[in-house]
Amino acid sequence: MVFDPYLFFGGNCGEAFTRYQEIFGGELFMMKMSDAPADAAPPGVDGDLVMHAALKLGDGLLMASDDPTGKPGRVEGVSINYGSADAAEVRRAFDALAEGGEVTQPLIETFFSPAFGTCVDRFGVSWMLTVDPPQG
Questions:
Q1: What whole-number distance in Å separates Cα of residue 66 and Cα of residue 110?
Q2: Whose CA is closest to 78, among 120, 47, 24?
Q3: Residue 73 CB contacts under 8 Å (≥ 6 apart), including other chains
Q4: Are 65 and 14 in contact (CB under 8 A)?
Q5: What global pTM score does this model have?
Q6: H/E element, 66
Q7: pLDDT along the chain (136 residues), means of 10
Q8: Phi, psi dihedral angles at 42 (to 5 degrees)
């Protein structure tokens, strides 16, 4: 069984997922409301809103869409975790995600990781970044 996070944005999903692909790489799939067949599209919804976005990176999958009501703001009560054994990669990703957002815990050494930090990106998504500890 696999759990894959699905985020909802208030109109900036395309911008967010384009940025996430810039930061993490991976394969990005994005479908806008205007891509739906005319008989399947929700009436009165902005065709530029994202109906579904998926960023596949290795075995990981992050998915999202725009909420057609435009109500979502900051995502609260959940964080997306990104971990890597490469400390320089975690630092680079942390700095990129924090740009224009808010650092809530600078990257620091902890008892469970050589470096752990948290931030909220400029799209309102909370992130935890961790350097995976060496095995053994």
A1: 36
A2: 120
A3: 10, 124
A4: no
A5: 0.90
A6: strand 60-66
A7: 87 96 98 86 82 94 87 76 95 98 97 96 95 80
A8: -65, 135
Q: Which amino acid is at 15?
A: E
CA 94 to CA 86: how far, in whole Å? 12
The DSSP secondary-structure symbol of 33 reads: G
| Distance between CA atoms of residues 10 and 69, nearest Å | 7
d(CA 48, CA 55): 19
Contacts 24+ apart (CB under 8 A), 94-101: 94/119, 94/127, 94/129, 96/22, 96/23, 97/23, 97/121, 97/127, 97/129
In the numeric block, which tokens belong to residue 25?
A: 């790489």
DSSP strand pairing (50-57 vs 27-32): antiparallel
The residue type found at 107 is L
- Please name the residue that has the structure tokens 């930090």: 117
Structure tokens at 71: 């109500």
Of 49, 43, 11, 46, the C-alpha closest to 30 is: 49
